[in-house]
């Protein structure tokens, strides 16, 4: 019986992971990164813009946003 419980737990975990990954894929930005930061207006370096789609802030402004959100 315990093997059945473990199998079910594993199945639930796999489904949860698949759901989380699908949501993450849906929430990925599809637009090119901005050339200028939306907060301070300074140019966002090319290397940062090429890192990922949807970059809208320079590193400094993004860090401030993350601190305010409690992510740092």
Topology record:
Layout: H1 2-26, H2 46-51, H3 59-69
Please characterize this protein's 3D structure.
With 72 residues, this protein is mainly α. Helix content is 58%, strand content 0%. The protein contains 3 helices and no strands. The N and C termini lie far apart (44 Å).
User: Total helix count?
Assistant: 3
- Summarize the helix and strand pattern as letters: HHH
Rg over CA atoms, rounded to whole Å, is 19 Å
Mean pLDDT figure: 89
Structural class assignment: mainly alpha
Separation, N- and C-terminal Cα atoms: 44 Å
Unreliable runs = none
Total strands: the figure is 0
Q: What's the shape? A: elongated
User: How would you sum up the major sheet?
Assistant: none
Structurally, the number of domains stands at 2
Summary of the model, kept short:
The chain has 72 residues and is an all-alpha fold.
Describe the structure using short key phrases.
72 residues, mainly alpha
């Amino acid at each position: 019986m315990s093997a059945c419980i473990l199998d079910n737990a594993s199945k639930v975990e796999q489904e949860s992971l698949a759901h989380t990954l699908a949501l993450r894929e849906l929430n990925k930005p599809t637009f090119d990164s901005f050339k200028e930061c939306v907060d301070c207006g300074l140019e966002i370096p090319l290397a940062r813009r090429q890192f990922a789609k949807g970059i809208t802030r320079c590193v400094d402004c993004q860090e401030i946003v993350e601190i305010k959100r409690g992510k740092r």
